[in-house]
Amino acid sequence: MYISPKTIDMLSNGLGSQSMFLMLMAGRGVIPATVSTTADTGAENDCLWSTGERSSAAEYFERVVHPYGIKNGIDTRLVRAVDIDKKPLLPLMEQVAKAIAEKGRPESIPLYGSRGGQQLQSCTDKWKIRAIRQEARRMGATKLITAQGIHFAESGRRSKGYIIGKHGEWTLYQDTYTRRVFEMIDGKKICVEKVEVPVKWCNHYYPLVDLRYGRQTAQDELSKEGIPYLVTSQCDFCPHNDLDRWMRHTPQVLVQIAEMEATMGGKFFFTPERVPLMEALAIKAAKPKLTVEAGFGCGNSYCGV
What are the residue boundaries of the structural domains of the chain, listed by start? Predict the structure, then answer.
């Protein structure tokens, strides 16, 4: 039986100011997205709102995103990725703690090593990208086009991909993933090449980059509409936070993360200073405050937006 293709136009909603500005644009009909999908990592529990309030990301979704979607005809979804047996992944914080207890270090987040290296990052792919694509498939999508909230000043954080044309007025990119080619050299398995392979059914675009808008524009427009957003929209323990972002967390959460870090025996750290978290924050607190925007060093378009 022939099944006609189904294209879903979605926005990836990380709940930060840029993502919520995309919601506003969708509500106004500026972008064609009709679905807003938020990946639930289970590790975004100490989120600071633009109003000064704190809550989990899930509570913010229920109180702000879902009602806005109902009012403006946008299908809003909060989803958790599932494994090969269709079971929801553990909350990322729980998975990290479990791996540290079993192996002395987690395998999914990019911790900084005491010898100068940094672990590979798979958390974004497993807990965010996978959740969004799985939900699209459950909705029957044979084609997924996703608006992402990277703003113009951080356009270097765009996802892997290459330009393939236009989606209305927006520059459209082909999603890709990196495939590593290995060879045995002197008895060792060595990566000799990295190949970008297209994810044929997935495309994406960046409205804020095309419009040359920065974060402040997004925040100003949301403020005009009375829509709060999350100032901290990444996982509580994300190693990509700079020290200013770390200092936005509550003391209780910082202590919890520091205790987790301490169980790794001084081999892995949450900050590039490669000293215990509380020591790094004490050094930061002793320095004069800078007026630059707090930074987020993640090189993908799904976290911290």
Answer: 7-285
